[in-house]
Amino acid sequence: MGEAGVDVLWSPLMKQLRGHCLCGAVEYAVADNFEYVGFCHCSECRRFSGSAFSAVGGISTAEFRVLKGQESIRHFPKSAHTVLGFCSICGSSLYAQKPLRGMLHLRLGTLDESPSRAPHYHSHVASKAPWHHIGDDLPQFASSRTATVAQASVQSNGLGSGGSAA
Q1: Per-residue b/e over 130-150, b at no fewer than 16 CB within 10 Å?
Q2: Segment 127-136, tens digit of pLDDT
Q3: Which single residue of 3, 30, 75, 127 has CA 20 to 30 Å from 158?
Q4: What is the β-pairing status of strands 73-77 and 83-87?
């Protein structure tokens, strides 16, 4: 594992995408194998991105590797569930590591090319910026997409009647 706690199991068979921070001190490669891609509107992603939402792609940490500038990446342990990674030189938001799930939420704006999977949902719209209007027809989830899907599964199985899956 590297400094970020990111495993570096690598698949040369998968198409690789490259990306970098604003100043170019950090460069990375990631497999074009995102499990999910969407727009997060939570207040924390808005603060970390400096925008109305953050475009993120969920990928296994094993499919991400730093090519250059590992020493320039700083981490902010926001919680036991999330460690934010950013460039210490230019401040670019790079990813949110999800250590308990073995996932990385890569900031899609740092990619040099488009991933094959386009964003397909909006999450945390209950806390979106009040001045932002979502103008597409993608599904919208009040909280996290995964919590909503898990809760719907529990309710459809007659196992519960509310609460959070988080």
Answers
A1: eeeeeeeeeebbebbbebbee
A2: 898 899 999 9
A3: 127
A4: antiparallel
CA-to-CA distance for 146 and 11, rounded, in angstroms?
26
Contact 1, 12 (CB under 8 A): no
Residue with the two structure tokens 């999910």: 36
pLDDT tens track for 46-57: 888 888 788 999
User: What is the CB neighbour count within 10 angstroms for residue 76?
Assistant: 11
Q: How many DSSP H helices and E strands does the chain contain?
A: 2, 10
What is the spatial distance between Cα 130 and Cα 103, in angstroms, rounded to a whole number?
29
Contact criterion met (CB below 8 Å) for 6 and 104:
yes
Domains of the chain: 16-156 (3.90.1590.10)
For 69, the 3-state DSSP assignment is coil
